[in-house]
Every structure is written in structure tokens, then in C-alpha cells.
Amino acid sequence: MEQSRRQVTFLGPGVRLRKAQADETIVSLVADVRELELSRHPLLESLRPSLGDFCAQARAVATQLGSYLPPELREPPAPQMPSFWDCYRDQFARFSVVPAIVNHQIARQALASGGQLAALHEKRDSAWWRERTGAYEAVAAAAREARVPLRTTPSGLWRSVRNLALPMLSHGQALLGALNSYGSPTATGLERISADDCDVLFLAVGATAAPIIARVAERLTDDHGLKSVAADLHFGGSTRALAGADVPVVDADPRCYGSKLIRAGRGLWPRWWQHFQAQLGAAGDELGGREWLTPLLRRRMLVTLAGRAALGLAQLSAARVIIEKLAPRAVVGFHLYADIVAPLMLTAHLRDIPTVCCQHGIRGPYHRTLGNLPWDRFLAFGEYTADLLADLLDPVTEVEVTGHCLYDDARTPGPPEQIAALRSELAGESRFVVLVATQPDEYDVQRAQPRWWLEAAAQACQAADAAMLIKVHPEEKAVTIYQDLARQWPNAVTVIPHGEDTLTDLLPACDLLVTRDSTVAYEANLRDKPVITVNLSGQRDRFALAEDGGAQGVYRYEDIEPAMHSLLADAAARENLAASRPQFLARHLGPQDGQATERIAAAIAQAASR
């Protein structure tokens, strides 16, 4: 009787992990370099120390590929300007090269342990059609090296269809994305703003940046006599959030400055692709001996040229106009790296305009990404972020710990009668009030979990005579899942849509905050409120809230209700969590003396005076 041969089954990103059968080893592949920081799989954990090396290899490959691009994409469009590839290289390396290199190493190590068969299962969803992970190329190359037969799902026919459709899918997606992201272009604002009106230019990305801009801009004017302008990059809710800020706004929609360039560029991508193909073919294999990468990189570059290059050139055109017209003395951003920020930031950098990056949200292992722009200064909330990113920051970047300006008044309680009135209005006669802060991806989390964690939280509140207030995230669209939960638990659950009762109002009125991960955990700690973080993913926490004593971490569905009951009714449990609070706040938020706004404004003013 022939002995069964052990099979190594590789699960592509998005495929749910299942129990291994006899003579089978199951290994999950990664879609993003950050998954190495989060995975608990022994194989992936063993690769974590090599992350920096993988990133360096990927950047070298992406740099080499740039030399094969046509001149208008690889060379600056004007003096003291970056090129398209200068702005996009690290994005390409992060999403198109690193995952493939990491997945190849995962497959090699898994098959080296004695596997005699290999199987790759990928989920044929929208992410698969975009194809960024290189799962097939990576596993197929490892299987060839190990001389192991490989069986794949979807079939080779489906992969061929996907590969043929990629350029058109990418082109259409880019067009729809531009329309959805920018809407109808408005007046740029440049005609009513002169260089005399702009000492500091803020690069607004995300809704959470707007209140920081408003607060710091006011201090820059009052304390340092500097005028501020915000460039709205129309990303992550920035446009809506800036509407309420008393800061002049310049529209950074590239169609305001280069719409003809976008239209022309969208027709040029076939020529760009032919040039790249010819140059790559003439160069031979110069990709670090990874000939298996070549088909993947050809497809990924085709997608980039068809869907991103024209918009990138237009963003460069917009950056040049904005920087030359406003001539800021300093440029301030909130993301260490983002390809949407790179044109404006690098244009300023190459013109010797000081650049400052200000931390704007919670940071953790999840944010250890591939590359960072060469900011002159990075303003971190606390030592935790400074230490976390120390080996990833550009060597020219100076780090300063400032605290978070939005928390300067967090320890100041509101009127007790106002807090009591809000509590009574929302919770009635309930014994306890539990505040739940959601995240924009909760709909995806609900679909991925066999048992949704919020159902356990609702059941716990029902049993404890607690009112559960669900505060919907401002960027969340799929709010019906919370309304369904409220119908299921009408005596326990109340949904608070965005625009009603802010977290600043709700936190003082609650007894416990429950969240997956959010900066709200910082605010709850500042108000001496206990926090529970729920992570049922099987991965490490994205942020060190529980690890550093700022929350009680829950990692199993059945532990949610006991943890909530403990922190609601057990004084000893609350005191135990409170004991670690001062050290947690000091490490993550820096000094809490109410002077963070002044420190941030002073750092920006110092840069502007250079």
C-alpha cells in the first residue's frame, strides 16, 4: 500500500483558516508587509526579524524598474521637482514587490520541512482580480525549487482571464476612483490667496487631521504671527471635516491644475507600457536573480501605467502650482508616507522648504510600513511612537515628543449636572453605561467572524442592566449592522450616528469603553475610564493598548461578557487596570500638561524660521 504524501496547503489572503486534515500542513500567505508584524504563525514570526531586509530588497527592485520607465515618468518634470517614480516607487514596492518576496520565503520554508505536494487556494474576490500579492508566482517558484507538484485554485484558465483583464480593470477603477474621490472640482482658492497669506501649508488627509490643523493654526497666528493654509487632498473625509475649520483651504484636486494632462496621460499608457517592455527586455534579468518575479512585475507595472501614472503626473503639476504660488515657509503633513502626499511634500523638500510631520492618530506594529518620506522633523505623541518607528524613519528626520494637542483639555471635566443629564437621556434607569467606539471596517469584521463580537457585548449589557451606546465612526458607511443589533437587543443597545453627541460628551457619562482599537482608548484613559479592547482575529494586537496597560485585552468570544462584567461591577478589577494608567499615558501620550498645542506650534514655527 502506497504511503500518503504530506501536502502543504497555502491559503491566499482572505481565505479563512481551517483545521488541517491528516498529512496536511496549512500556511497562510500575506497580502501586506504589515501582516508580518501581526501574525502569530510560528513560520511568519520567524521571518519578522528579516522584514527590514525584505523591504530593502523590494525597494532595490522598484528602483531598478524605474530606470526602465519612459523619461516623462522617471525624470522630474521641472527643476526642483520630484519625478512620478520618486513619488510612487515605495508604494509600488510595498504593495507589488514585498508581499511576493515574503510569500516566496514563506513557501520555501514550508516546503523545506518535508512537504511532497503543494496546493494553493486563493479567493476569487475583488482583491484577487486586482492581484497584488504575487501568491501564485511565489508558491509556484518555491514548488519548482523543491521539485514538488503544485495544484492551484482558481485554475490557470481563470488566472489567464484575470491577467488579460487587468489593464482595463485598473484603468476603469482609476477613473471611477478619481470621480468618487474628488467629485466635481471647485475653485482652487489660489486666486484669493497670495504668498503673503501662507506661512505654513498643511497637507490635509483624513477627517482626523482637520481639528489638529484648526487648533495649531490658531496658536501659530496668536503666538508666532504665522498664517496658515490647508491644501485639501480630498482623502479620508478631509473635505467635509475642513468645512468647519476656520482656516483658508486650497483645493488640491489635480483636475483643477492638470485635467488635460490626465486625459492625455490616460491615452498614453499603451506607449508607456511598450517602452517599459522594450527596456526591461533589453536589460535582461537585473532583478536580484528573481526571474520568477518578472511576470508579476510586468503585470503590476502595466496596472500602474494604466491606472495611476496619468493621475500621478497631474498631482505633480498641481503640487508645482500650489508650492510656487503660495511659497510656504514650512509644509506640515500627518502621514510619514502616502503616495497622495508625496508630490507636495517632495516638491517642498527639493526646494529647501522645511517639512514637519505631526502624528495624528494611534500608532502600533500595524504602522511599521515600508518607506517614509524625508521629513525634516517628526512630532510624536510620546516615546512609544518614537521608539516604534526609530529604525524606519529617514536618517535626516529629527524626532520630538510633543503630546497630542487634541487632548490638552481632556482632563478637564464638564459640569456634573450636564454629564448626569446626558447619561439619563441616553441610558435612562440603566445601572451602567457602556460606550462602544466603532471602526470604519466593522462591516468586514462582522462578515469574517463566525460570531460577531458586538453580539457578545450586547448580551453582556443586557445581563448587567447596562445601556450600550454605539458611537458610529465618522468614516463608516455600513451602519445598518448596528441598527439590526439594536432591533435584536432593544432594551440594551442605542446607536448614536455621526453628528450626534460627540465622544467628548459621551466619555464622561460612561462607565466603560469597549472597542477593537481606537485613539478613543487614549481619551478614556485620560478620563480615568476603564477600557476593553477586543481582538478575535487570532493575530497580535495592531496597537499596544492592552500590552502596555491601557486596556484589558480580550481575545476569545466567550471571554467578552466576563471581562465586561468584571470591569463594571468589580472595584478591584478597575483599580488593577487603573494602576498601570499613569505609566501607559506617559509612554504613549507624552507630557499631559495641557501644553501640547503650544509645543507643536513652536516646533512648526521654528521650522518656518529656518
Beta strands, count: 17
The average pLDDT value, as a whole number, equals: 87
* Outline type: globular
User: Into which percentage range does the β-strand content fall?
Assistant: 5-15%
Give helix % range: 40-55%
Strand order of the largest sheet: 7-6-5-8-9-10-11
N-end to C-end Cα span: 80 Å
Please give the count of helices: 25
- What's the assembly state of these chains? single chain
Radius of gyration: 26 Å
Biggest beta sheet summary: 7 strands, parallel
Written account of the structure:
The protein is an alpha/beta fold and 610 residues long. The chain is 48% helix and 12% strand. The chain is built from 25 helices and 17 strands. The strands form three sheets. A seven-stranded parallel β-sheet has the order 7-6-5-8-9-10-11, sandwiched between helices. The protein has a six-stranded parallel β-sheet with strand order 14-13-12-15-16-17, with helices on both faces. Strand 13 (466-471), helix 19 and strand 14 (493-496) form a beta-alpha-beta unit. Helix 5 (84-112) packs antiparallel against helix 12 (293-307) and helix 13 crosses helix 14 (342-350). The longest helix is centred in the N-terminal third of the chain and has 29 residues, at 84-112.
Defining key terms:
single chain; about 600 residues; alpha/beta; 7-stranded parallel sheet; 6-stranded parallel sheet; 25 helices; 17 strands
Task: Summarize it.
By secondary structure, this protein is of the alpha/beta class.
Task: Write the topology of this structure.
Blueprint: E1 7-11, E2 24-28, H1 35-38, H2 42-47, H3 51-66, H4 71-74, H5 84-112, E3 117-121, H6 126-130, H7 135-146, E4 150-153, H8 156-182, E5 200-204, H9 209-224, E6 228-232, H10 238-242, E7 249-251, H11 255-283, H12 293-307, H13 309-326, E8 330-333, H14 342-350, E9 355-358, E10 377-380, H15 383-388, E11 398-401, H16 416-427, E12 432-437, H17 442-448, H18 453-463, E13 466-471, H19 480-488, E14 493-496, H20 503-506, E15 512-515, H21 520-526, E16 531-534, E17 552-554, H22 560-569, H23 571-579, H24 581-589, H25 596-608
Parallel strand pairs: 1-2, 1-3, 3-4, 5-6, 5-8, 6-7, 8-9, 9-10, 10-11, 12-13, 12-15, 13-14, 15-16, 16-17
Helix pairs in contact: 3-5, 5-7, 5-12, 8-12, 9-25, 11-12, 11-13, 13-14, 18-22
